[in-house]
Amino acid sequence: MSDAAAQFWNRRYSAHSACWGEDGSPTLQAALRHFPASGRALEIGYGYGRDLLLLARRGLEVVGIDPAGEGRRMAEERLAVRRLAATLMTADFVEADLPVAAFDAVLSHRTLHLMTEPGMAERFVRKLAAVARPGAIACIGTRDLRDLDPGRMTGHAHGPGVYEYADRPGHVISYWDDERFRSSFGADFDILSLERAEEQEASDNPVPCHLTIMVARRK
Questions:
Q1: Which DSSP symbol is given to 176?
Q2: Which of helix, strand or coil describes residue 36?
């Protein structure tokens, strides 16, 4: 994820604070049904920390990675108030120096659809496979094709499933469907379920955001 993206999220958190509320995300709710009760968990794109809190409260040893420094500040405050602990990194997941086969559980909510540059989604999958131990559970929630409105997009795709909003230049989304999950993750993960979910896009734009949540086990 680019420096420009990190700056965008810093501005967004500064302006709108907890823009998805304080409750756990739909991806976390799915994860809590599958994650182990102990071990090491990685959250990719922890934002301002709403899911980190519940992972840490569960008793997992939590590592979070996110490019936005303002989000990290907010997450650290939330953890401190609740006397919970997590190791937080300010970095791009696909570029970060993370230990191989180190995590028993991996969570990522609404980050994968931001992997829009050519080859970036493939690098995300390879990195995920590298850091997850055999048998680890990964829960990945991302926007799906139900959210794609061709009338709002520019006339050409930036890549498979990747579109730019005509009225929001530079705002590019990579939309996923079940087949894309299977073809992208199937070599390294056994997909246990592909679940549908919905939450509001954000507090300042309370329209439905449709998600597919993959629950998968590292082979």
A1: B
A2: coil
Q: What is the pLDDT along the chain (219 residues), one digit of tens a residue?
A: 556 666 666 566 665 667 676 788 999 999 999 999 999 999 999 988 999 999 999 999 999 999 888 889 889 999 999 999 999 999 999 999 999 999 999 999 999 998 988 899 999 999 999 999 999 999 999 999 998 888 777 766 677 788 887 777 767 889 999 999 999 999 999 999 999 999 987 666 778 899 999 999 999
Q: Cβ–Cβ contacts within 10 Å for residue 98, how many? A: 18
Instruction: Give me the phi and psi of 95, to 5 degrees please.
Output: -100, -15
Cα 25 from Cα 95, distance rounded (Å)? 25
- The three-state secondary structure class of 17 is coil
Asked if residue 72 lies in contact with residue 10, where contact means CB atoms within 8 angstroms, the answer is no
How crowded is the C-beta side of 70, counted as CA atoms within 13 Å? 14
State the distance between the two ends of the chain, measured CA to CA, in whole angstroms.
27
Nearest to 27 by CA among 190, 112, 142: 142
**Angle 10-85-15 from CA coordinates, rounded to 5°:** 20
**Rounded to the nearest 10 degrees, what angle do helices 69-81 and 3-16 cross at?**
50
* Cβ(24)–Cβ(51) below 8 Å: yes
pTM: 0.90
Rounded Cα distance between 71 and 111, Å, is 14
The amino acid occupying position 171 is H
